[in-house]
Specification:
Oligomer: single chain
Radius of gyration: 29 Å
Helix content: 25-40%
Distance between the termini: 33 Å
Number of helices: 22
Structural class: alpha+beta
Shape: globular
Number of strands: 36
Largest sheet: 20 strands, antiparallel
Strand content: 25-35%
């Protein structure tokens, strides 16, 4: 975002792309008046796994399925069958409703099934072993029918025990935080650390079976009188599973100040379990995941490779993880000397970068470490136990979110200890201090000058990490014995790629969700369509490859992409102000999700999933004075002083939530319901206002574009979900739509004075023309498509159609309609999708023609763009690979969305 856009950024029209219908000129009123769905709308839905292999060793999978308006009512039940017609137990619940009260989205949880499954109306089959939850005692006891977990209601133990049958497999599950109070920038000084333990403040049972149970645990890390670093843990259990999933979120609320060595530096952040060890040391096994499905397979007391041979069968059994015969049956030259064979109790795998891990072991504390191997990228999986049972454990995105680490300690004793480090204590402390000293930018004029050279909007004190968050996912298996190599490989696969069921694109399209008519399945039936599909494939593949080549990995960074390329350095501008991390600028999140919705491609889903996890957590504040606001693109994800609604936009989270029913993302969306209050805390236009302005609860200046898009998406989502504040949210949706439409110039008015108490904009006395090229490119296009489909408000529809019609019009046409033109604009290619939408809604053939003209022949990418990469190697670049210097993320997001939506809306009207 440039200085000029900043001036109009929050004043621009709430333009977004309204709801294009499948028929040429079907209006919103017709859609609202549509009769209850015909029988075809309730056809069974075929579900499939994103990747091959089905559920595998994962505990279960949950997905969202959309339904056409009116198809099913709230009390509808659903049944699931496999390819052979056999019943598959399923638990279903509503996660969104249409305005008429019918089901819009339903969530479905399964704990079994492979291959394609069929979902249809009917009575669900009950699992043979149901999940049960008992809250009557001092713990919350969850049983899957195979394992039972006792979850603490207070204290520092999150999971008090995990048992399988009568055997306790794990106990004392807890959170560990290591704080380093001072950081040394050179090689002098002593490192001092202190340990904090996670302490439970509250436990909530969110679901209690029969197929799926969810328990949420909230608290903070404490030592003595100090409590900090809030956590929110969700534990997921599925019927008949021997495993459970943990979703772990921390919100940073420490203090780190630029230029100061003291502060709250995280040295280690982990999840720890104790594992009872009952078997003889030669029947205890360690498994550590290496590259791919590779494993270190060892026993605490190894009897292979010795000078004396206990027997081939004995050696083979130990390597396989099977119980050994009585030592009395071995070669006695081994049996009588067992006490002289070392017992290896401690193992550590450390992944400090995306490019290397090391593995070492030692006999016990106080003795030297022995190298045990290494490699490039570890799976993040481990196992400790024996023939009488043991615990498998794994951390998802292990190397992608480095530095990470796995520890096994004291496996030679009666109780081993396992720690999954989300931040390795062997790495440098987590240094989140702002990256420069301000360079004299103490006043607004100086900061605007800085913006004009580095594209960074700096302001002292604003580049703070206070309030950002990060979510990690972990899996645990309570095994009755050491798993076979084949079973271990399945567990490794589940850690690396969590199995996900999905509804097909045709169901999403038929249900008219996420903007009806805005996306369609890929179509290569004509050369022109095929070329656009090729271009879309090229752009996605290029960014996927750039993540790898440029190592866009790390605990705080993974999931984001860069904004702009430096062709001279053959490098993305990772160190230049607003050209570095993208932070959702111009909606690459929506581009990726739209690409998935139309294709069903697993690789696109996984890319978009990692981006949603990142942008919703790291780029947004969840605590403090800016809670509910996000940060503009920059060198650090929180560096820029532009804290705005457009980055916190709920639209970017809706896709993943409704496709997966993910509770954490649901939290993030609900947290935004009252984010209109943030305009009291911070004036987004404070640096460039020319008239006096003091935020007033009854007269807050809020733009109809990037501001309103963030607000109304949160309100709409709360309304659809029937969340705790859904009635207020619904009223806000309707009142703001009504009062935007009532403005003298509608969306072109640019902004209005908003009353927090009434949820209405004051209607201006005089028309104003205030249009920004940014207004419609942060999700408004797609959001208005949903609103117009949902709400029968013709004046709002017309106000939006006018904005769509005139943004890409000539200045003369703009002046003729509004009395003056819109000034100097850009991003015409991206706005061609507004032309396409309005053309369909109004039946205007001229607009349809202009949509393709602006798509092919304005700014952005063209057919004559190179559409290829060039090879890169040393000494021009750090890592050999490829580059496409002509690619910029702003252009990619806009081209991607325009291409997808124009093809869907006007694919039969291409030139």
């Amino acid at each position: 975002m440039s200085p000029i856009p900043r001036r109009s950024l929050l004043k621009a029209a709430a333009v977004a792309g309204a709801a294009a219908q499948f028929s040429w000129a079907l209006g919103a009123e017709d859609a609202e008046a549509a009769p209850r769905a015909a029988a075809a709308d309730t056809d069974p839905v075929t579900l499939d796994w994103l990747e091959d292999g089905g559920l595998g060793a994962a505990p279960g999978s949950t997905l969202g399925v959309p339904w056409p308006m009116g198809a099913y009512q709230e009390d509808q039940t659903f049944a699931l069958t496999d390819a052979d017609g056999k019943d598959v137990p399923v638990q279903s619940w509503p996660i969104a409703y249409w305005p008429d009260g019918s089901l819009k989205w339903t969530a479905h949880a399964v704990s079994s099934g492979a291959g394609k499954l069929t979902l249809a109306a009917g009575a669900p089959a009950a699992p043979a072993r149901k999940v049960t939850v008992d809250t009557r005692g001092g713990t919350v006891d969850v049983s899957t029918g195979v394992i039972t977990a006792k979850i603490g209601k207070s204290g520092s133990t999150i999971v008090k025990s995990v048992t399988r049958g009568s055997t306790e497999i794990a106990r004392n599950g807890r959170l560990v935080l290591i704080r380093q109070p001072e950081i040394e920038d050179e090689d002098q000084g002593a490192v001092r650390t202190e340990r904090f333990d996670g302490v439970v403040d509250g436990v909530t049972v969110e679901q209690s079976g029969p197929v799926r149970a969810v328990v949420r645990v909230d608290g903070k890390h404490r030592k003595g009188s100090r409590s900090w670093l809030p956590f929110s843990i969700r534990l997921y259990f599925y019927a008949g599973a021997d495993s459970f999933r943990m979703v772990h979120t921390i919100t940073y609320d420490g203090k780190q100040e630029p230029g100061k060595a003291s502060g709250d530096f995280i040295r280690g952040l982990g999840v720890r379990f104790s594992v009872p060890m009952r078997d003889e040391s030669y029947d205890r096994h360690i498994r550590i995941g290496g590259e791919g499905s590779g494993l270190l397979r060892e026993a605490v007391k190894g009897i292979t490779g010795l000078r004396r041979d206990p027997g081939a069968a004995v050696q083979a059994a130990q390597y396989a993880g099977q119980k050994l015969p009585d030592p009395a049956t071995w070669d006695q030259r081994v049996t009588t000397r067992l006490q002289y064979i070392p017992e290896w109790g401690d193992y550590t795998l450390s992944q400090l970068s995306a490019d290397g891990f090391t593995l070492r072991k030692r006999t016990k504390k106080g003795h030297g470490w022995i190298g045990a191997g290494g490699g490039r990228r570890a799976s993040g999986f481990g196992y400790v136990g024996g023939v009488g049972g043991g615990l498998s454990f794994g951390l998802r995105d292990f190397w992608e979110k480095h530095p990470a680490q796995l520890d096994v300690r004291a496996a030679h004793t009666d109780e081993a200890e396992v720690t999954l480090w989300l931040w390795s204590p062997e790495a440098q402390p987590m240094d989140l201090r702002f990256y420069h000293d301000g360079m004299g930018q103490d006043t607004y004029p100086e900061q605007l000058e800085g913006l004009n050279i580095t594209y960074e909007d700096h302001e002292p004190g604003f580049g703070t990490p206070y309030g950002i968050a990060r979510t990690s996912e972990l899996l645990f298996w309570a095994n009755e014995s050491t798993p076979s190599p084949e079973k271990l490989a399945e567990q490794v696969a589940a850690v690396r790629v969590l199995p996900q069921l999905a509804a097909p694109p045709r169901q999403l399209i038929k249900a008219k969700v996420f903007g009806p008519g805005l996306y369609s399945e890929p179509d290569r039936s004509t050369p022109a369509k095929a070329r656009i599909e090729d271009h879309l494939d090229f752009l996605f593949t290029y960014y996927k490859d750039q993540v790898e080549q440029r190592r866009w990995y790390g605990f705080w960074d993974y999931g984001d992409i860069m904004h702009t390329y430096d062709a001279v350095r053959h490098q993305w501008r990772y160190d230049i102000g607003g050209y570095a991390w993208d932070n959702s600028e111009l909606s690459p999140d929506i581009w990726l999700w739209m690409a998935y919705l139309r294709s069903g491609r697993a690789d696109i889903f996984r890319f978009a999933e990692s981006m949603t996890r990142h942008t919703g957590e790291v780029d947004v504040y969840h605590l403090g004075q800016w809670a509910g606001l996000g940060t503009r693109h920059g060198v650090q994800h929180y560096a820029d002083s532009a804290k705005q609604q457009r980055i916190a936009n709920t639209t970017y989270r809706r896709y993943y939530y409704f496709l997966t029913a993910d509770e954490r993302v649901g939290d993030l969306m609900h947290a935004n319901v009252d984010s209109d209050e943030t305009f009291l805390a911070l004036d987004p236009l404070r640096k460039i206002r020319t008239e006096p302005y003091t935020p007033d609860r009854h007269a807050l200046s809020i733009g109809f574009g990037t501001d309103w898009s963030g607000l109304v998406s949160a309100w709409l989502t709360e309304w659809e979900r029937k969340g705790p504040k859904w009635e207020k949210a619904k009223a806000r949706v309707l009142s703001t739509m009504e009062t935007i439409a009532a403005q003298p110039n509608g969306f072109v008015q640019g902004s209005g004075l908003y009353d927090l108490d009434t949820g209405r904009f004051a209607v201006a006395a005089a028309p104003v023309v205030s249009v920004s090229h940014l207004s419609a490119v942060f999700g408004l296009n797609e959001l208005c498509a949903e609103l117009i489909h949902l709400v029968d408000m013709p004046k709002f529809d017309q106000a939006y159609y006018d904005y769509c019609r005139y943004f890409n019009a000539t200045k003369a046409e703009q002046a003729a309609r509004y009395g003056s033109h819109f000034g100097t604009l850009l991003l015409f290619q991206g706005h061609s999708r507004l032309d396409a939408y309005a053309a369909v809604q109004t039946g205007d053939a001229a607009l349809a023609k202009r949509a393709w003209a602006k798509f092919y022949g304005s700014d952005g990418y063209t057919e004559s763009s190179p559409w290829k990469t060039e090879p890169l190697s040393g000494p021009a670049t750090l890592v050999a690979g490829s580059e496409a210097p002509w690619v910029a993320t702003n252009d990619t997001a806009l081209y991607g969305l325009a291409a997808i939506e124009n093809l869907a809306l006007l694919g039969d009207r291409m030139p």
